[in-house]
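Researcher: Let's try something more involved. This one mixes different molecule types, so please make sure each is placed in the same coordinate frame as the others.
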Amino acid sequence: MAEHLYSAFGMRIRSELSLALPSAANVKTPGSDPTVLTFQTPAAWMVDIVTGPVPEYPDLPNTLGKIRYGRAGDAIIFDVPWAARYSIEGGSRIVVERVAGAREDFTGLYISGLILATMLGARGSLALHGSAVVGSAKQGSTGNTGRTGCLVFIGDKGAGKSTTAAALTAHGYRILCDDVIPIASDHDTHHSLVLPGIPLPKLLPDAYEKLIGDPQEAPHLFDGVNKYQVSLPSSDEPAPLRMIFALEISERAELRIEPIKGAAKIQRVLQNAMSLQGLDDPTSIFTRCAERLASVPCYRVLRPAGKNCLDELADAIVALDRKAETSTVAKPVTGEAH
Amino acid sequence: MITLNKMVRKTTIDGEIVLLDGRSGAYFSLNEVGSRMLELSLQHVDKEAVIMALVDEFDADEAVIRKDFDELLITLLTKELIIDYEG
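Model: All components are placed in one shared frame. Result:
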């Protein structure tokens, strides 16, 4: 019997396990806010997470570190030796068999990231690895709907995705996603839309100290690895994708932000598209990226390695966003894949 | 006369063509001139007409365009990204 009801990634999730996902009780019906574009989200996509037996499959063909995974009949199986075995069945049901002695929160950690992201891919969605924020409608300077576009931050591990997103909350932005960014396409408006994900950024101790406070006073937020999961102003409404920022650590002395266009843009985005070898077809990922991201402006952000320039970076991003605000929220998709 | 290999996906972003080889997962990107060369060639425009169009569009030297055109097509054919069905 499901005890928990969540809403994330365009899914309504009934779960027997407690998960670190936004509660469905707090989520508004899409379209209820006139400042937000309505769109055709898979709102009826119900996902059930139940506990039960998942057979051992010794011949799963793919590995992700020590995690083994692959298809078994119509199901997709993940075997995480220190947490659980997971079976994704029919795109709407996940069966979980926990390893003896494994903690429930550890078991849930893989559901809210790896397993649900895999379901997104199997369903034809595009998911990027990174963080996303959305402007607050109340802070619009034009007097109309305000800044409701979504800014996405991608980059390698340690590039500062979560930290940059967290820093922008001081400028009125709200966290929309951290880690997994689901991007849908509205068939009516041709906008690329970022769906709400898990709005809980994970910060390294130094970033936590700069943005939040003394990490020693928040041991309960420590994720057990090396980061602090923090709750900041967040949004549970989908938002049109306005810009993508690819964060990189640079040997340059100064912060530099430069546009990326054409082939370099899609190649940079594809590097952060979530896909699993053996499960996801590279051709499909390429096509989804082309369809949804071709017309979205993308910037390379070169952050000096030896200099803290978070405030300068946040100011520059806000300035770019305000400049875009005066032109358009998001242009229709013009990319095509043949 | 050339056509795209059926295993290749093509997309145009900011005026530049990107090709994905579905067999290997490798990407090939073309600059603005290369993109225009391929686009015209896929429209089955005669080679000489393609070259003259590019000379006009990019205000470029004909010999340079001709050399670049030949090199591009050889590269794409060698990588089996395109097929020359007239040999």
